[in-house]
Structures are given as C-alpha cells and as structure tokens.
Amino acid sequence: MRFFQHFLIHCYPHHPIGAEGIWTHEIPCLSEKYEYLMHAILGLAASDLSVQRDPSLTASAMSHRLKAIKAIKKTLSDVPARGASNSNSFEEGNALMATCFALTFQSVLLDDGMVEYMTFIRGIIIVAIQMYVKGADVLFGKYLGDKQAEVLRPLLEKVPLVEGAWAQDAVAAVEGLGGLCRHEMERQYWERILDMARQLTVSSWLAYKSMSAHYSWWMMLPHEQFRHIIDPDNQVCVLLATHWIALKQIMATITETEAKASGKAANKEGDIEIGIIRWLRYLNGLVDAEHVAYNRWPMWVEVQLERDVGFFGKTR
Question: How confident is the model at residue 268 (pLDDT cuts 50, 70, 90)?
C-alpha cells in the first residue's frame, strides 16, 4: 500500500502531458485487473523511494520490475482486436501502454537504464500502433503526437537560449565525432545530435524540436538497426550516447518545461534528471582508453553535475 500511495501522490509519469487525471484515476483502476501493470506501478514507486529515502527498497523495486517485464512479454504481441468485447480490447491495450510508460520512467532511475528506457518507449509505440490497426480505443490518444508540441511551443518560445559557451562547446564536441561515424546508422545518429547542438545556439523551441526528432528517429527504427545503435560494445555508439545524454543535461532549462506544462513540481522532476545524470556517469565509464579523447566534453558535463546538480539551470 505504501508504494501504491507514493505512486498516486508523488511519482506517476508526467507523460503524456495533460494526462495526470488518467494516471491518478483510470490507471489505478486498471491495475486491479492487470497484474503486470500493478507490478510496474509498484516497481516505479519503490525505485523512486529508494532514490529519495531508502536504498534498501532497491531489491523490491527490481523484483516488481522483473515480474512486470516477464508478464508483459507474454502479452505485448497479442493486443486484442476489436471484437466480441470492445471493453476488454480497450482495457488490455491501455494497461499494456501504461505498463510501458511506468517501466520507461523506472528506467530513468537505474544507472544502466538508458537502453531499457529506449526499448520501453518503443514498446509504447508498438502497442499504440497495434491498437490503432485493430480498432481499439487509446486512453492516452488525445494527448499523443503533435498535441504535445502544441502545448509546449508557446512555453518554449519564451525560454532563453542556454549559455552560449555551453552550446558552442557541445557543437564542437559532437562535430569531433564525425570522422568516427562510418556505419549508416552511426551517421544518422550523429547528424541528429549535431542538429540538436546547433539549434541550441538559435532557439530553445527549435532545440526541443530537434531533440524530439531524434527520439522519433530511433523510436521507429527496424529492430536490427536499433540493436546497432544501443550496442555497448560499439564504442562509436557509446560516444554518441554520452554526447546525447550530455546534451540533454545542458538543455535543462528547456526540458524542464515539460514538467511545468504537466503541473509537476520542478523539484520532483529534478529526481528524474538526477537519474539521467547517473546514465551519463555509467556511459562515460564504458568509453575505453582508445576513445576517451573524444569524450572529454561529456566528462566535463558529468563533473559539473557532480559538483552542483543544478549547474545547468535546473529549477530545484
């Protein structure tokens, strides 16, 4: 009960923007029927509590997470079509989608969670597409797609540019990776994060759009191509990941706009960002001696955040 209450009050996902009422009303009701959703909710809450107050809860958090993942793997490929029971179709598909959202947000709280974060975001898309094709109603439907951008644009157009030196250093660092990117997927990855860095010198709104375009790119990649860009043994892709996550950190004043738009308190959103800082530390640790010279800028970003988690302007 403690974990469930914590989820309802403190750590339900802030995505999709505008769906807070669904997370605090409809989703808890669905979790009574779908065990994998309940485990995902409890796992997210336990991870959040373990980060904030009680590290001993980590084991419980991972136990619930593993149970949710095991259960969802059995059902992800079989979202019910509209048929004899539209109600069941509606419930099952939305329970699957909510589970993927919860597992995604829990991934942010794990040191090595970036790959699972990306994987479960792709799971959300898979479920949404299957529901659409089979005629099922999507509980989050009116909050997805371009509707997010419509909400955020007027807010982001007012956000000042990030510090010029940070943006310029980011551009130089990402440009320095160009010669390493020989595979087509690496080249596409590099081009997208380079555009993110360059847009930081132009407009906060355009930088956010570029970040969203990068998400859209890897979310829709075929499986084999996706596997290539998340391969931890591929040093080029590890470097691209360290630079992507470092970029997200210097964009703190931009990305926090999502939390403001959702009504989430900025200090609670900070817990999520601290999780992504741990991703950066973990990824920097994967860079080998041969490639460390290419990773100096992400390492610099990590050092600044270790000294002061609000260095890049995160509202705390």
Answer: very low
